[in-house]
Design brief:
The complex is a heterodimer of chains A (326) and B (453).
Chain A lengths: L3 H9 L19 E2 L7 E6 L3 E5 L5 E3 L20 E8 L3 H10 L7 E8 L6 E3 L4 E2 L2 E2 L2 H4 L6 E8 L8 E10 L6 E3 L7 E6 L6 E4 L5 E3 L19 E8 L3 H6 L10 E6 L5 E3 L4 E2 L15 E8 L10 E8 L4
Parallel strand pairs in A: 1-15, 3-11, 4-12, 14-21
Antiparallel strand pairs in A: 2-13, 4-7, 5-6, 5-10, 8-9, 10-11, 15-18, 16-17, 16-20, 17-19, 20-21
Chain B lengths: L6 E4 L18 E7 L7 E18 L6 E2 L7 E8 L7 E10 L2 E5 L2 E5 L10 E4 L6 E8 L3 E5 L5 E5 L6 E7 L5 E7 L10 E6 L8 E4 L3 E7 L5 E10 L5 E10 L5 E6 H4 L17 E7 L4 E6 L4 E6 L5 E6 L6 E2 L12 E4 L2 E6 L9 E8 L4 E8 L12 E4 L5 E5 L4 E5 L5 E7 L3 E3 L3 E3 L10
Parallel strand pairs in B: 25-29
Antiparallel strand pairs in B: 1-8, 2-3, 3-4, 3-5, 3-6, 6-7, 6-8, 9-33, 10-11, 10-34, 10-35, 11-12, 13-14, 14-15, 15-16, 17-18, 18-19, 19-20, 21-22, 22-23, 23-24, 26-27, 27-28, 28-29, 30-31, 31-32, 32-33
The chains are: A mainly beta (326), B mainly beta (453).
Chain lengths: 326, 453
Amino acid sequence: MRSGNVHLACLAVAGLALLTSCGDATQSQGNILLKDENNYRTMADLTIPVVVTTAATDADICWSAIVDDIQCHPVSATADLDNVSLLRIAHLSQDQVRGRVADGSLSQSDVSGYVDFQTDHTTTCTKLSSLSFFGTVIDIPSQYIESDDYTYLLLFSKGTTPGLGARTMTFLQPSANSPNTKIDAPTGCGMLDFSADLMSLTKLSVPSDGPWLLDWRGIKRDGQGNEVPFQKIDGVSVGFYANLTVADLQARIFDIELIATNLYDIKLPGGRTADLATATDRKTGETFPGFARTETGTWMLALTCSKCQNPAPVLLTIIEPSAGGT
Amino acid sequence: MRRALSLVVAGAALLPAACGDSPDARRPANVTATLSDQIATVVTVRWTTSVPTTGYVEFGATGKLGTRTPVETTAALDHSAVVVGLTADAPAYYRAVSAENGAAVAASDVATILTGPLPVGLPGLTKTGDGYDGFVIVPILGATTAIVMINAAGEIVWYHTDDRKLDFYRARLSVDGKSVLYNAAKISGEPSAASELVRVPLDGDPAKTTSIPVPYLAHDFVEHADGTLGAIAFEDRTDAAGARVRGNKLIEIAPDGTQRTVWTSWNCFDPATAPGDDPAQGWTFANALDFDPAADAYYVGLRNFSSIAKVNRTTGACDWVLGLYGSTFTFAAGAARFLHEHQFDVHGNRIVVMDNDGAPGDVSRVLEYELDFTAMTATQVWSYTANPTVYTFVLGEPIRLADGGTFVNWSTAGQMERLDAAGTSVWKLNTDAGFAFGFQTIANSLYLGGNTP
């Protein structure tokens, strides 16, 4: 309970309350307020294959067998993959690493080594010994070793930013007993068991005619139940799906960007608010026209994070255009 | 100007001069607060007085305030103060205060302003423990390149980025209390001829941001009390066979811009007899710099020598060298040896060193030695390894604190720790995967070069 003094102080400025706050850092700034009850719930589980190779020995790495990513979208092994990177993770088992990769909670202190190889988009093979970082190559005899202390994770990624854009992956397990020196990257489809519950959420009521000032400072958890990475949210997307139901979207969650009739985006520099009126059509660039449609369908809204380890939207909800807001 | 508002929240000005029968001419009036266009957590407060006064701003996250800017040095009618240390996207409370001889004599009412959000791209930070109550000023490397100030709660309260495509390795609060200094350089592969020492004001104003070109800067720099900057840089020479030898030099830039070379690797070492152990990185590969004003001497870390040299600022001679190559110290029996060390902290006859590669396996540690300057022996007296262990393959910095504790920055592991005098970790900060810390400066305050006003 607030003290009387503070309460009186707030009363004194009641006329200006729309512009300031009285001790509450979560003062909303919009007419459409997102809450945790609006957010979808997801379940993600990764099955990462293991390739056992000879410890302390160079190996051939080839990725020509990659034809799709972990979301089962098509991937060209030559055109779409920019980086092959090897993470050496200390103190975590393969199972623990799998869990942290699935929920995007890997910390930098977990990573005791990182080397990578930028592809030339023509060949699909390299040598383990070709991986380097800041000009320093991997020292295979001392750094690719059989040890309970280390887990090795090989990533094949779009983009070259460490830890981002992985399309498929495999654990490497150095073993003194293995004669194998060939690493064939597995294709991605089938590794990720991902489900989303869009049916249980509370639909987000928005005014049909605007304004549409969206405010998400009230949410506490992302779809996986983790803390919201507010300062990494860099996009808002609003999608309309003609003749599709919420159940349809739930069933095709990996394709949610592909099956939209219209998808409107806002690129954010930061912050916790966005005006949907500034969204533009991803294909045509036209400004968001509002929620009036002649055909039936479903409206979806997502808060996205292009630089997060986990590419799933931080928030995804179903919009219910109505006379009022929240 | 993004936002300017000044709103009275509490009318109780408790200072005697504020409630008299007649208006106090010293009482701040026309108080306004403006968010910085560049840094959404920085607020400039402006006010006027009817008579010339000096003043300051009290501020905080609640109406209790609790923090203040330095007192103005010159009495005036128009006043301003830059408020730093505020958290993002949160209300900040403030009031302007007039002071005489440092004591408050009149104050405005308390008002509030809402700070803006942090920009996308800064790392997520996770803090555990409460055993640190200061600030950290540190470059961020990796997925984002920036300079940030972090409070004890692990929140970024100040940030600065630039797009010069160089990395930043060290950040410091300037001794004049008005700016942040950092080096924009490149230490991986070929060093950059476009490297600079950059000075950005606390409010981030690009019009007041300046830089000093210093080609081929290396990892570290210091600022002297008079504003002179000392920085390490790369220097190439050729040997008798015509081959390139990449050593280092220590450059001073005086406040008037004059540059002079204080020291080079060749002052103390001969590449023919002391070649170092990693020629791919050059010869000496100086990577850390400290300055001891009492001794008027620099300490230079030499990665490829696994050594630290004390350099006489006047003569450029090495007073002593501690380490693997060129050492003038002998290590006592049983002393652990550091390998490819980075930053260190000399305090009296003790030195703590970030030992990046000396421990078995890929584990980094902090080693402390007691130095006997008569017998020229180094005796290991302490070591610390993080739990769980971490590996910082470059950078890393330990600082011995006044209470006997130690602040440790495990740079590329994205982890900082505050240890108590017993060596127990009482505060820890971790980044998300993909980010690393450069060399840090710790401070009790973000004003007066780190000293509490």
